[in-house]
Amino acid sequence: MKATDRACDNSPCLAQPWIATSCPPPNQASSEAVQQPRILVDLGGSPQSRFDGEDDTSAAASVVNMDHMELMAHYTFALSNPEIDRDFDRAATKMVLQAALDFPWLLHEVLAITSRQLVLARPERAAFYRAQASRLQTRALSLFNRRGGGGGLQPTIDAANALAATLFASMLGRHLLVDTLESLLQRTGDDVGGASSEAALDRFCHYLQVHNGLRVVASSAWPHLVESELWPLISLVGQLNTPRLSGRGNELRGLSDWVREQHHAKNLTGTASAAADSNGEEDEALKACLEAISLLQSGLDHSGLFSFSSSHHPLQQQRRRLHQHQMTFSWSVRCPAKFNQLVQQRRPVGLVILAHYAVLLHLSRDLWLIGRSASRFFRVVTDVLGPAYDAQLAWPRAVLSDGGSDLAAIGSSAVAPLS
Prior knowledge:
By secondary structure, this protein is mainly α. The protein has helices at residues 30-33, 59-62, 66-74, 77-80, 89-102, 104-121, 126-145, 162-185, 197-225, 231-237, 253-264, 281-303, 314-334, 337-344, 348-363, 374-385, 394-402; strands spanning 40-42, 50-52.
């Protein structure tokens, strides 16, 4: 199998920037197509990855029961954000729960991600907790998109709900990543149980789409947050204040050089001639790819395990490690839209860079949300790329094979020949 220009099946489906909507079937009447879209996030059809935002008015969906009380008692901020400094966990947990009491959509997502964590913590009841997490997140999405009353799909972010909306977007994004990574892990290869690598990559592309939509929610809330009385606590926790640093290490220098070679050969977007590239797509793609690589390098730098070593001071090491984990969660949403478009279009340069993201997943494998997904994520991308790009993927393959014993000794991505 090799990379193609085929975009993800769901890529045109963002009717609003903060939600994903289902595409109407090809034979659906046009009059139906203009109706208010169903809020749908579909990451592969598994129960835990399908969230339908239609209003659920059944009694079972709205009654708070003992199962919900169990989840509330189990929740801490460190459960959804295990990378944070434990000294701030109690204050952050209180902040989240106070906000959740005022905004039911946040409360339901708090319960949903807690239930999702219990899938791993209590494997004997994994099926129950997974299904419960799906139901609760369905309800959370429904409540969020109906907030303010009526049938409108444009929630207003203001000073009163900015914190809750940002926490909701962050928690939902992480929950979606957990489900997406799990969906990649079942099987890889062509047409094995219906879970081919192409289909798995489709699900990751859809996650990119929805996660970028969630960024709109957080961006709308940001101006209100900096004026909030809770801003000092938010800053201390670090959840909403990850620095946007340029990478300084050398590990991905060879990858950057290869991308520049591809740009020189007009291979980034598939534009065949300068005349066809009148809009400067190749230049835009180059800038986007180099930005994506720089963000990856920043995550590697924060780990302190490679060429750009961190301070030996324990507090600084802890803070840098926190930022490395946060880059694992936020890399895809920080990347320029043009880069994510290249991934969705299966452009080889986009997929080669995406394969390097597996290293960040590998470095965060001690977090329950990530686990041991890195090698399987890497295999999905390399299956789609095919063997023609093995030279460009030698460095991440070596890191994943090493198991973390001596990452600094592995060196950096080699300058690969033009292909």
